[in-house]
Amino acid sequence: MTDSPTDPLAYAQPDRPAPPESRPRIWPGILLVILFWGFTLLWNQLDITTFTRFLVAMGARGLLLLAFVIWWLTNRRISRRDRWMVFGVLVVGGVVARLLSDRGLNIIAWLIMAVPIVLSVWAGALLLTNWHWARARRTVVIAGILLAWGSFTLIRMDGLNGDTGMSFRFRWTPTAEDLYRAQLAKAGQTPQPSLIDTSTPLHLQSGDWPGFRGAERDGIVHGTHIATDWNANPPKPLWRKLVGPGWSCPIVVNDRVFSQEQRGDDEAVFCLDAATGRELWAHLDRVRFDESMAGPGPRATPTFADGKLYTQGATGILNCLDAASGRLLWTRQIRPENAGLPMWGYSSSPLLAGQMVIVFEGENNHAALLAFHADTGAPAWTCDVGTMSYSSAQLVSMAGQDLALFLSDRGLSAVDPRTGNIAWEYRVPAKGTLPRSLQPHSLGDGNVLFASEGDLGLECIDVKLDGMGWHTSGQWQSRAMKPSFNEFVVYQRNAYGFDGGIFCCVDLQTGSRRWKQGRYDHGQVLLLEDQALLLVTSEEGEVILVAADPGGHHEFGRFQAVSGKTWCAPALAGGRLFVRSEREMGCYQLP
After folding, report:
1. What is the reported pLDDT for 433?
2. Same domain flag for 420 and 455
3. Is 443 in contact with 508 (CB distance < 8 Å)?
4. 2 is a domain residue
5. Taking the mean position of all CA atoms in its chain, how far away is CA 182?
6. In this structure, are 53 and 114 located in the same domain?
7. Residue 3: inside a domain, yes or no?
């Protein structure tokens, strides 16, 4: 029984075109697919935030799927049996393909990628077979849907870029981590002796880069002067090597470079010779963190203090190591028993404040800043500052007091690092689901600047201390710069950083934008304060020298430093620039 005027199956003749009355009306389905791809093409050209881009991408695909299925199931020119048979193939084929696909292909990413392609193939099959009998049409449509679903079992996703674009490879090709581990295995068979003494304790020297974004966590380089004509005098490459996956930025102390990475089932803290890139030691913990959006590996950056290295692993392992030798001095697991992991792993870089090492344990019922005694690892205090953040505590001096600033979903908190008591809070609850992850900036006159892409942009507040205590008030809020996970720098009452994937300058007196230019995608930036220069690293691994000039955007030169996605903040010490991507680290002598 059929609800179409005639049942073409009863008269199927493959060598003859279908009669006009049996041809389905396919133009609505074709139009839906064309409108979707046209909208996607135009939308991707717009300058919008990462969070908005992701939400709109999900919404557009959901609407396309809903509209296409409704049109198909209500198309009375196609027999009811064919409509439900093809719909069943769509559902069952999708479930089977998902079960057979690569484990690293996140379900959300998989649907974002697969749904529009499968529906486009479906529409194309209808267009090709519209002049044929129903049996041929049904066969081609089903075959197209199955082949489209099946094609996604052949690939893997190598994460997202800053604009939520996906990177794919055939699943049988080696990953960057596979190539690195093969290199490590080969190097282990032919070890090379080191000329560097790993027994003498290390001490901080002038110009070292001892932690995340430098000594003050503000991305500012002092006492360094470089040539600006890179065409005549380009940076000199000293070494470039593969590294394991992770988003731990390099730090530099004396002649050593420290960072963290994933090595198969081991999370590694490693030390390199800064001059040659040769590994001096590595400390391994038998844990692995992996998620499909940003990939595997640790997220936090090591911190050096008093000859020791403090590291935070993605699964919650807090280590204290002897920086010279890599010997483990103490270790703690900050994740509560039976608690889940944050979506993107523990990302808080340890802060050394006096005799305390401070990290954030989040996304659990008892989320808090945690402090441990730096010499023994014994717990010192906890402080409730919110439940979600991928930021790190920031030490500042305000009104003659040392305070640890921390940005979370609750707002900005200032904590006494000795006791864990909250000195003041500026509550501004997060409105979006995109977590806050950036460092606050103390502007030195009682003003504090902080940022969040999903709900704030930039916000400047005023903080005062009088006989009645601390007082906070909002100064201004601006959407002129909406940094995501891209840190910014402050120079002479202007902020320089990323608004989405485009570099810009914002006046800190008013929050208004001075200029916006330079498509460096989602990169990072350092300020060479003595010369009013900016070293920008693009998401694609380029280094660009830019003037810190509120009057306009001026480039002096650029070069390709590393390959692969480059989200880590660079380090600059002793005239050497260290750049790390998801797969490489390079060292360059600046002229």
Report:
1. 63
2. yes
3. yes
4. no
5. 26
6. yes
7. no
Question: Which residues is 415 bridged to in the sheet?
Answer: 404, 422
Say if residue 162 is in the same domain as residue 192: no
Does residue 90 lie within any of the structural domains? yes
pLDDT at 13: 45
Domain extent, residue 140, equals 8-170
User: Which residues, including other chains, have CB under 8 Å from residue 267's CB and lie 6 or more apart?
Assistant: 260, 261, 284, 285, 287, 288, 289, 297, 298, 313, 314, 315, 317
Whole-angstrom CA distances from 492 to 383, 399, 474, 485, 529 are 34, 21, 21, 23, 10
pLDDT tens across 508-543, in order?
Answer: 999 999 999 999 988 999 999 999 999 999 999 999
CA dist 308 and 299 (Å) reads 19
Distance CA 511, CA 482 (A): 12
Whether the CB-CB separation of 509 and 475 falls below 8 Å is answered with no
Tokens, residue 60 = 């557009």
- Residue that is written with structure tokens 């909208």 in the block: 39
The number of domains in the chain is: 2
How crowded is the C-beta side of 555, counted as CA atoms within 13 Å? 15
Residues 566 and 585 both lie in one domain: yes
Note whether 438 and 570 are same-domain residues.
yes
Counting beta carbons within 10 angstroms of the beta carbon of residue 91, is it exposed (0 to 12), middle (13 to 18) or buried (19 or more)? exposed
Six-digit token string for 211: 């932690």
Asked if residues 239 and 549 have their Cβ atoms less than 8 Å apart, the reply is no
3-class DSSP assignment, residue 343? coil
Q: In this structure, is residue 102 part of a structural domain?
A: yes
